[in-house]
Amino acid sequence: MERKLAVEVKGLEKTFKIPTEKRNTLIEYLRNPLDATRTKKFRALKNINLKVNEGENLAILGNNGSGKSTLLKVLAGIYQPDKGTVSIHGVLVPFLELGVGFHPELTAYENIFLNGIILGMTKEFIKKKFDEIVDFAEIREFLNLPLKNFSSGMQVRLAFSIAFMSSADIYVLDEVFAVGDIHFQQKCRAVFAKLKAEGKTFIFVSHAPDLVESFCDRAILIEDGEIIKEGKPKEVLAYYSRS
Amino acid sequence: MNRHGNNIDLWKEFFVTDFKLRYKHSTLGLLWVIFKPLALFTVLYFVWSSLFKTGPEFALYLLLGVITINFFNEGINFGLQALFNKAHIIMKINFPREVVVFSSVSIAVINFIINLGIFTVFAAFGSLHTNFEGLLLAFVSLLSLLLIILGISLFLSIQAVKFHDIRHLVELLLQLVFWSSPVIYQLEVLPETMRNLVLLNPLTHVLSLLRTGILNASHITPEMWEKAIILLFASLLLTFIGHLFFNNKIRKIAEYI
Fold first, then answer.
1. Is residue B1 very low, low, confident or very high in pLDDT (cuts 50, 70, 90)?
2. Does residue A229 belong to any structural domain of this protein?
3. Helices A123-137, A108-118: inter-axial angle, 10-degree rounding
């Protein structure tokens, strides 16, 4: 059966200009207004070609600084490609960080709405899902407590619970898996399994080999901004740990 | 998901959250919104009325000027910092970025509306000469002012991310704008060369239309309406240009941060 494409990346290039000296004030610019040469070019992504099918779970492996997060940010629409195209079919919700926009001074109740709306939900939608979020995070008795009084584990639990209420087709995750205690992690895995069964697409960066192996259908390995290996998670993991 | 509905929710959420946080940890809370312009007004009023002979109508003239220029200052300041203050969110998720500029400027709008309420209380004791036409003229001039603030904010919010010290420069320029607008003085008292300079400042026209509309509606002339319409279209053009600039640069904003 022909599967539909969820994400297609063609010839993607991303280059950053790294200033050899940081110029963030006007004086620094005025001193040398025409001098644009004091930057180094850094090719973060080189000719990336990638297809992800609907319902597929893709793991992205690679060392720190290899370009994984840059790729995720391009997929999330935060960075624009310099060259090449990125087509997304469906609603993509990125979780490059859990609890985006969380404010420590606001109560859990307020933060649920703040974070949910930033993630692209409507207020109506959150109201409908509110009880589900609170129960999943197990924080009902602390709803009116400012977030700063939450333990970090509780904050992450709350963030996770909001995140997976969003009705996305494609989830992009940057190492946000191992959250909470063992009891909560089991709940999370159950959610992933459920979403996977519903045919959602996952693209995630992870450094946890067991998770990549058990959860993903395919893996790619990125080194210096290039995909150097692609295949079954087991093969790619073996290649990665060897090199 | 309904992205359009979300944009409105997003605007409201940023707006309500920022408003709440701004005054959360101050003892006087929201009172600061009215206290600041009122304090400025009181100082200016006593200095001015002890230096020169001023009638009671001057108090309203001054108060209206002070809260209007305060609106402009706050609007520019909040708009300027909008993207910068939301950098941590911008780096993590994609949403229509202009929403943060709109929501920041909205805080200045609310502050201004609260201050207009205070003005109305004061005006009840003074002499207010307005009518429907006057209120309409005042509305058009304030709408122009809002558009001017938006246009400048759309431009500055991007620049503030690239040049961190631009807000100090803007602070300086806002001082200049304050003194080159007839807030505390009347245009007529200026020597002609100075007056011609001050007339180049669009805020001069906003203030004169607004004051005529609210304090002196019987003196509205057709030329004033002409001026108001020109001002409105010029402000619209400015917002449009600001928006073009914003759209052009915003795609790369995450790289500037």
1. very low
2. yes
3. 120
Alpha carbons A104 and A150: distance in angstroms, whole number:
9
Q: Is residue A128 included in any domain, yes or no?
A: yes
Within-domain flag for A141 = yes
Sorted by sequence, the CB contacts under 8 Å of residue B129 that are 6+ apart come out as B215, B216, B217, B218
pLDDT at B2 over 80: no
CA distance B223 to B225: 5
Average pLDDT over residues B48-55: 77
Q: Which residues contact B206 (CB under 8 A, 6 or more apart)?
A: B68, B141, B142, B144, B145, B148, B231
Helix B222-250 and helix B202-215, axial crossing angle in degrees, nearest 10: 130
Domain containing A222 equals: 56-79+91-242
Q: What's the domain count of chain A?
A: 1
* Residue B110, C-beta contacts closer than 8 angstroms, at least 6 positions apart: B19
Cα dist from B50 to B41, B55, B189, whole Å: 14, 11, 17
Q: Which residues of B touch A113 (CB under 8 A)?
A: 13
Q: Looking at chain B, how many residues does it have?
A: 257
Instruction: Sketch the domain layout of chain B as residue ranges.
Output: 3-256
Say how far apart CA A192 and CA A198 lie, in whole Å.
Answer: 10
d(CA B181, CA B187): 9
Residue B99 to chain A, least CA–CA distance (Å): 11
User: Nearest chain B Cα to A69, which residue?
Assistant: B92
- pLDDT at residue number B53: 73
- For the domain that residue A130 is a member of, what is the CATH number? 3.40.50.300
Instruction: Say which of A26, A76, A106 has its CB closest to residue B165.
Output: A26
pLDDT tens for residues A69-97?
Answer: 899 999 999 999 999 999 999 989 888 88
Q: Report if residue A125 sits inside a domain.
A: yes
Q: Which two tokens stand for residue A62?
A: 């690679």
Q: Which residues of chain A make contact with B21, given a CB cutoff of 8 A?
A: 103, 105-106
Over the stretch B116-137, which tens digit does the pLDDT of each residue have?
Answer: 988 988 888 776 788 999 999 9
> Would you state the pLDDT for residue A181?
78
Say whether B13 and A123 touch across the interface (CB within 8 A).
Answer: yes
Is the CB of residue B89 less than 8 Å away from at least one CB of chain A?
yes
Interface test with A, best of B3, B6, B88, B159 (most A CBs within 10 A): B6
The alpha carbon of residue A64 is apart from the nearest alpha carbon of chain B, in Å, by 18
Distance from CA of A132 to the nearest CA of B (A): 18
Which chain A residues contact residue B171 at CB under 8 A? none
ipTM value: 0.86
Burial classification of residue A39, based on how many CB atoms lie within 10 Å of its CB (0-12 exposed, 13-18 middle, 19 or more buried): middle
